[in-house]
Each structure stands twice: as structure tokens, then as C-alpha cells.
Write a structure and sequence with these properties.
There is one protein chain. The chain has about 100 residues and is mainly alpha-helical. The chain has a domain of about 70 residues: Orthogonal Bundle (Arc Repressor Mutant, subunit A), CATH 1.10.10.
Length: about 100
């Protein structure tokens, strides 16, 4: 394991992450909802104003946090682990599915 650079300190976890189940950010919850709605990475990017590559990076992090090997398993794992319906999350004005 490579040691961290000299002077490096871990930052405390932000309150947003402490209050969210599984440590998911609001943006990650938006991505989960869009995946549950059947959006591709390109569509996720268009809805959220990010590149498809950034959308894919969010998916990769979500797969790791939720412990699933495939993108299509993200919504089901989210539902199982949180008890919440991923489609029930408000996506905000810029990220609303279908409009």
C-alpha cells in the first residue's frame, strides 16, 4: 500500500453523506432514479448536465457502494438496502425524467 503524500489529512465526512443511507450523495440518488427510469449513460448525462463519461463514473461508484456487478442491478439493490423506491426521488427541475 502506498502511503499518502506528506501533509495529507483525511477530510471529515460531510453532513450530506452522514445523513444519507449508504453514504449516497444527492447526485448519486438522482443517477439511481434515472437508471431505474431506464435511462442510458448518455440520457443520464443529458438530464443532469454532465458528460456520459461522468454518468458512467457515477454508475461505477454506485455499483461498488451497492455491491452489485451490473448497472441494471443498481435500482433493485438500492430498494433492497434502503427500503426506498428509487423512482420516488425528486430529480430537481433540471433532472426530471420525461420533462
Amino acid at each position: 500500500m502506498v502511503p499518502p503524500p506528506a501533509g495529507w489529512q483525511a477530510r471529515p465526512m460531510s453532513p450530506v453523506l452522514k445523513d444519507q443511507p449508504l453514504g449516497l450523495t444527492n447526485r448519486q440518488r438522482q443517477v439511481v432514479a434515472l437508471i431505474a427510469a431506464g435511462c442510458s449513460n448518455e440520457e443520464v448525462g443529458a438530464h443532469l448536465g454532465i458528460s456520459p463519461r461522468t454518468a458512467k463514473a457515477h454508475c461505477d461508484v454506485l455499483r461498488q457502494k451497492l455491491g452489485v456487478p451490473r448497472r441494471r442491478q443498481i435500482p433493485a439493490a438500492f430498494r433492497t438496502l434502503t427500503g426506498e423506491d428509487p423512482l420516488a426521488h425528486d430529480l430537481g427541475a433540471e433532472g426530471r425524467v420525461g420533462g
